[in-house]
Specification:
Helices cover about 35% and strands about 15% of the residues. The protein has about 375 residues and is an alpha/beta fold. The longest helix has 21 residues, at about 160-180. The two termini are about 15 Å apart.
Amino acid sequence: MSTLFSPVVLSAPAGQLELRNRTMLAPMCMYSVEAHDGVPTPWHLVHLGARAAGGFGMVIAEATAVVPDGRISPEDLGLWNDEQVAAFKPIVEFIKNQGAAAGVQLAHAGGKASTYGNVPRFTARDLKGSIPVSDGGWVTVAPSVTTVHGLAESHELTEAEIAESVLAWADAARRADEAGFDFIQIHAAHGYLIHQFLSPLSNTRTDGYGGSFEGRTRYLREVVAAVRAVWPDSKPLGVRFSGSDWVEAGWTIEETSRLTVELSLLGVSVFDLSSGGIGAYHGPTGPGYQVELAHAVKSALAADAAERGVENTSFVSAVGMITTAEQAEQVLVDGQADGVSIARAALKEPNWAALAARELGESVEVTPFAPQYWRAHW
């Protein structure tokens, strides 16, 4: 059996979640909520359901805002009310009925909210950047007033507003549980609100939420504690990081590694490593260009567990231009990560996981395909 298609267990404080394989559909924005109410649509059922039927071990729904002003665009999903919960329930049920675990990425875009969706109906008209308030946009919030994103000026959060924001994450986590999700991934990457707190490039605060490593990471630690307090102990909790800003004086992989160790002690067991998002991208490109970040975090977590004399129960996934079965398998065989998140390759091919299993020589009994498609001669 290949490593990629061996089952794996994600740990939780008082339970575990078994995945049929180590492939995860990465959360990718669909910009498809045309009603602008955050409620999932038939498109989301078809999109996510197809990848579950296509063999992924876990399917993670796109960035789902914890509050309305946390949406990247007006067409994003949300989990701030009961109508959204009700619409998510049949989607989650279908994903799980196909043999995949159902995850959701909870998010707040912060100063990068209220923007036009990155889809042809906007880009073809050269509509990009911040949506004016007069055209349906809103005033965004951020840890500091900054021009690093090249977007409309944000309102700087007060400490009281930060406390309210933390509660919103917890409320969304409760709704995710009610909807039936198996897993939550907290979005701390790509220049959105949590990442804006982490990076010195976007956080210039002088109070307890800025300055030092402890100050800049305080918001995320409070979010994790609030979410973990309401998210069932039987279910794993994850965080997606931008492992590096790839900019001098920005957020670094050394800081990411240090923080993942601290968060593992707060009940986070799953880490996904992306990069960039604060200002222009200056990092590497090419196949597997972010795998080294996953390897660094995996090594830091293993070293900490060894030093404390405990079992390392963390799961680290790599993401970013991982497109072929052989490439994904090699990442795991080399010990660089525990799993892989597949993004754009899965947009091209909903059955990416099932096809990868056949390419790696898995038997028909192991290959995760929908039985209705047996005539395709898997």
